[in-house]
Amino acid sequence: LSSAHLTGKERILADNEFIVSKTDLKGFITYSNEVFQRMAGYSEMELMGKPHNLIRHPDMPHCVFKLLWDTLKSGKEIFAYVINRSRNGDHYWVLAHVTPDYDSSGQIIGYNSFRRSIDRKVLETIIPLYAMLREEEVSHGDLRSGMQAALTKVTKILAEKGMTYDQFVFSL
Ligand SMILES: Cc1cc2nc3c(=O)[nH]c(=O)nc-3n(C[C@H](O)[C@H](O)[C@H](O)COP(=O)(O)O)c2cc1C
């Protein structure tokens, strides 16, 4: 299960397939569908109760997850491109739509993620962008200040484009 192990082989999600998972407030998996289990290479029982970073790929900038958690905790949904790592070290790209899940009194009780296949052409933008953000993150002494610097960078890029993060995602 070492995160250092990667095959370089990409798994492709079919256009008519959706990866679904639900988590509790801390990001521990409470539900996964069969497509999730197949793409990630784990059984339903192996995923149940595990932290969602189980499938985190090392190329994924931490600042994107910071943005994701900040957005969700503020009660809003977010769309993001994500590269994930399968159990055997393969990887797969998705466009994730992540939303808070509310109870009848309006309290956030967990989070849901619905992921679909990507349009290949977005990778021409996303791969170099994420590589640049990762480089920024590791160029600082500690992860926290690296992540903050990368977040500042992405915020500046969005400000220059006059776009919110979601607008940027859908402009690709
Ligand atoms: C509903 C939901 C779905 C998530 N899906 C993924 C995912 O597919 N891949 C991933 O790496 N992180 C996902 N995360 C974020 C992880 O919880 C975690 O923040 C991230 O992997 C970064 O790992 P770290 O917190 O250990 O730095 C998800 C979080 C939530 C709330």
What does this structure look like?
Helix content is 38%, strand content 22%. The protein is an alpha+beta fold and 172 residues long. It is globular and about 40 Å long. The mean pLDDT is 95.
Shape: globular
Content of β-strand: 15-25%
Q: End-to-end span in angstroms?
A: 33 Å
* Unique bound compounds: flavin mononucleotide
- Any low-confidence stretches, pLDDT <50, length ≥5? none
Number of strands: 5
Number of helices: 6
What is the H-and-E element order?
Answer: EEHHHEEEHHH
**By helix and strand content, what is the structural category?**
alpha+beta
Major beta sheet summary: 5 strands, antiparallel
Trace the largest sheet across and list its strands.
2-1-5-4-3
What share of the residues lie within helices? 25-40%
Rg result: 16 Å
- The mean pLDDT is 95
How would you summarize what this structure contains?
The chain is of the alpha+beta class. Helix content is 38%, strand content 22%. The site of flavin mononucleotide has 16 residues, from strand 1, helix 3, strand 3 and strand 5.
List the helices and strands and how they pair.
Layout: E1 19-23, E2 29-32, H1 34-40, H2 44-47, H3 62-73, E3 78-85, E4 91-102, E5 108-116, H4 123-138, H5 143-161, H6 165-171
Antiparallel strand pairs: 1-2, 1-5, 3-4, 4-5
Bound molecules: flavin mononucleotide.
